[in-house]
Write a structure and sequence with these properties.
- This protein has 123 residues and is mainly α.
- The protein has 7 helices and no strands.
- Helix 2 packs antiparallel against helix 7.
- It starts with a helix and ends in a 10-residue tail after the last helix.
């Protein structure tokens, strides 16, 4: 997908769809439909990972290993920091509060993806 659309476009497309899917998920009342809805949700969540790594390598071409480690490591670390915070929010206000908070959090990478600048290399 990134070869055809471009890495930044894949990021933007994924992060544009993500808040919508996260907002729709808690609105589904049928458990079977909700279970099936996890498939596109999972795909959208993991689609930008390879593009993020390659963009990091394009931004730091002399340090490709560092770029890979920082992009994936930072994503996993932020998720690890956010998990207990979201868990505490769920304990205090309920799981539905967290499910409605996630689309708001997903706006952050959406905004950041539109701030990315294209490199001179073909990315």
């Amino acid at each position: 997908m990134a070869d055809r659309l471009g890495f930044i476009n894949v990021l933007r497309l994924s992060f544009t769809i993500l808040p919508v899917i996260l907002l729709l998920f808690p609105l589904i009342k049928n458990p079977i439909l909700a279970l099936l809805f996890l498939i596109p949700l999972g795909l959208i969540v993991f689609t930008p990972y390879s593009s993020m790594v390659l963009l990091g390598q394009a931004y730091l071409p002399q340090n490709m290993g560092l770029a890979s480690g920082v992009t994936l490591g930072l994503a996993v670390s932020v998720g690890g920091i956010a998990s207990p915070i979201l868990g505490s929010l769920a304990d205090t206000y309920g799981l539905s509060m967290v499910l409605y908070t996630l689309p708001i959090i997903a706006l952050v990478p959406l905004i950041v993806s539109y701030l990315l600048k294209k490199q001179h290399r073909s990315i």
